[in-house]
Amino acid sequence: MQKMLRLVCFFFLLLPVGAQAATIENAFSPEQGATDLIVRTIGEAHRSICIAAYYFTSYPMAEALVAAHARGVDIKLVMDSHQKNRRVIDYLTDNGVSTRTNNHYAIMHDKFMIIDGQTLETGSFNFTRAAEYKNAENVLVVRDSPAVLESYARQWSRLWDEASVSVRG
């Protein structure tokens, strides 16, 4: 036991000063906390939220994004161009959220959010009511993992840059 403790302490000494381990939270659906975790994570935003979404039809998430925008958080959403139900997207757009559609792929199937450049929400969970109540899906929230966040930020920027500015449906 003492040998293990010394080994753990040794590895902590190898970490750069100020380094901290990533924290991870998860949730599942149907009705196992996935939407609640995403809404809570959106509520933690102070500066920015960048979203890549296949579909977006969740009113609880949309309301959390509009509330964040009202607090001064810069929110940008890029989504697949095949979005058929536009009510939630129109609600977001009407409330100042920047949206774009990406039609460069057969399906833009990404589903992730970058919050304040420090938190990543990802997983199979589509930002939809069906994902919460009908499907078996998962959500993973990763905090304080700069290398992971950097690769997702590059992907999001590419998707955003190649997308068209969305117009009200």
Describe the protein's architecture and organization.
The protein has helices spanning 2-14, 34-43, 59-70, 87-94, 129-133, 146-161; strands at residues 23-29, 48-53, 74-80, 98-102, 112-115, 119-122, 137-143, 164-165. It has an 8-stranded mixed beta sheet, sandwiched between helices. It has 169 residues and is of the alpha+beta class. The chain is built from 6 helices and 8 strands. It is globular. α2 (34-43) packs parallel to α3 (59-70). The protein has one domain (22-165): Endonuclease Chain A (Endonuclease, Chain A, 2-Layer Sandwich), CATH 3.30.870.10. Helix content is 38%, strand content 25%. α3 (59-70) links the parallel β2 and β3. The longest helix has 16 residues, at 146-161.
Concise structural overview:
This protein is an alpha+beta fold. It has helices spanning 2-14, 34-43, 59-70, 87-94, 129-133, 146-161, and strands spanning 23-29, 48-53, 74-80, 98-102, 112-115, 119-122, 137-143, 164-165. It contains 6 helices and 8 strands.
Number of domains: 1
Q: Judging by the overall fold, what is the CATH architecture?
A: 2-Layer Sandwich
CATH superfamily: Endonuclease Chain A
* CATH level 1 class label: Alpha Beta
Give the helix/strand class: alpha+beta
Rg is: 18 Å
Helix content: 25-40%
Mean pLDDT: 89
**Overall body shape:** globular
